[in-house]
Structure formats: structure tokens, C-alpha cells
Amino acid sequence: MKVVLSCMDYRLTEEVMKEIGDNVLVIRNAGANVNAVKETLKKLNPEEVIFMPHTDCAAMKLVKRVLSGEKVDSEVEDKLVSQFKGKDAEDLDRVNAELGEKLLKEVLPNAKVITNLVDVGRIKWPERKAVYYILKSSSSYDEDMLGGYILQAPSRDDLSADVKIAESLGLKLQKSEL
Fold first, then answer.
1. d(CA 57, CA 96)
2. Distances (CA, A) of 156 to 11, 60, 116, 168
């Protein structure tokens, strides 16, 4: 089995779609946050992980603001922000890719881990919609979802902090499968 782990950002949906095939599960959360789903990844024990964080990430901008003193929900602090304390706050997109890859290799020592830090300046993306979807890891996307933010995991418990982040961005829930 292969897992694609990516950010919920609307700009990445078509990039994620390129990786989906037979026996592939998708996990998408705020910032392609490995720390938030490490226990789920251990249970899944995939043979391969395609890790797709990206540049210009809103979750990393949130992390930077919190590291500078802004307050955030304690669950978001624990699952997302805490891992970046003491790290280079000026290049969090790169730091996120490095931390995530390192944690993936620790949690899944026998898995092949491929990291692709997606440069959003080099890809084409659809017009943004202020909505989000909560999908099962095995679900596919339809045309109506393009432009929306997508949270995707085996369990809603994996996404609780991410729902809070989506709502803080002013996004409205369009569909939930979990």
C-alpha cells in the first residue's frame, strides 16, 4: 500500500490526483503535518509514502505567527506548532519538509519515503473556493471539489486540529464523509 501525505491547500489537489492509483490512501491536513498522523501511519504501515508539503503554506504562516506570540487553540499548538519551536522561522516550508521526512523515516523505518516540496509558483491551480471537504482516505475527487480545501484521513480524529484551522481561515464545510 502507498500513502500520499499532503497539505489540505486547494492548490495541491491536482498534484495529489497525479499520485492516486490502485491501493493508494490519501491523508491531507494543514501543512502536510506528519506529527498529527504518526500513530495512524504506524497502524497503516505503508510500503511507500509520497510526502508533499508545499511553499507558501498557510499552516506554516500560522506557525510563524504563533512562534512570534500569537495565541492558538491548544490542540493546534500541540499537533502542529510545538514541533517547530527552536527551528528557523524564516524558512518554515523547508523546515516542515525536513522535519516531516525525518519523522516519517523514524515512524516507518521500512517504508520508502519520497519527499516532494511542491513549489506552488511552478504549478497551475484552480480558483479558490472558501469551502472545505472532509473525506475518507480512499475517496476520490470530483470536479466540484477543485478549488476547495480537502481534509482527508482514515478517521475524523486525525483531523480535529485541522478542522479548527479550516474554520479559522473562514472556510465553510461543504461535505463530510467522516
1. 10
2. 22, 22, 26, 18
Amino acid at the residue 120? V
Give per-residue pLDDT as tens, 73-126. 999 999 999 999 999 899 999 999 999 999 999 999 999 999 999 999 999 999
User: Across the chain, where does the E strand assignment appear?
Assistant: 2-7, 24-29, 48-52, 112-115, 131-136, 149-153, 172-176
Where does residue 69 fall: left (phi above 0), alpha (psi -120 to 50 degrees), or beta otherwise? Answer: left
For residues 6 and 95, give the distance between their C-alpha atoms in angstroms, rounded to a whole number.
15
Task: State how far the Cα of 145 lies from the Cα of 174, in Å rounded to an integer.
Answer: 9
Which residues lie closer than 8 Å to 157 by C-beta, 6 or more apart?
Answer: none
Alpha carbon distance 83, 33 (integer Å): 10
pTM over 0.85: yes
| DSSP assigned state of 56 | S
Could you give the domains of the chain?
2-176 (3.40.1050)
